Amino acid sequence: MTFLLAALMTGCGAPGPRSGLLLSEHNRVLLVESTGRTSRLKLTGDAVALNEALGCRVEVSGSPLGRRFIVNRWKITDSGYGSEPFVGELLFTGSAWRIRDRNSQTLVELVVESMGKLREHEGDLVLVDGFVLGPNLVKVVSFRVLRDL
Predict the structure, then answer these.
(1) Residues 6+ apart with CB under 8 A from 103
(2) Where do the DSSP E strands lie in 28-85?
(3) pLDDT tens digits, residue range 25-43?
(4) Residue whose C-alpha is closest to residue 142's, from 108, 118, 109, 112
């Protein structure tokens, strides 16, 4: 009886990392894996930023709970341009705009002339796609705000 209750509470999936495409259905965020398995994601803490990452490929870690997968760690691996975007808090330090990239843990400087309206989001968690022009220097091609901090 205890085993059956535990199986119902934790779901049939194994805990650990999963990867796939983020989609939305009826105001729910879904992860569609390459195998076709679809999981409804429970987003709490900083993972709520994934609500704004629909259409991106992600890796998530956490644990299943019934039909949901509770996300406790996440990484955006592709936002539609075929390469890993830069994700982090947008900072203005000294005379430069920068992002502390969550994926690489490096401080990336953005070319000011390429930023456009991105400059209006200082302090927010943003996703930036762009071209690497030099060591830790990126020309912005597109961006989206993941979380307004």
Answers:
(1) 75, 76, 84, 86, 87
(2) 28-32, 38-43, 57-65, 68-78
(3) 999 999 999 999 999 999 9
(4) 118
Cα-flanking dihedrals φ and ψ of residue 106, to 5°? -110, 160
**Which residue do the tokens 């890993």 mark?**
84
CB-based contact 85:93 (threshold 8 Å): no
The number of CA neighbours under 13 Å toward the Cβ of 69 is 28
- Residue 64's CB: how many other CB atoms inside 10 A? 19
User: Is this prediction's pTM over 0.85?
Assistant: yes
Secondary structure percentages of the chain, helix, strand, coil, to 5: 15, 50, 30
Give the pairing type, strands 107-110 and 137-147.
parallel
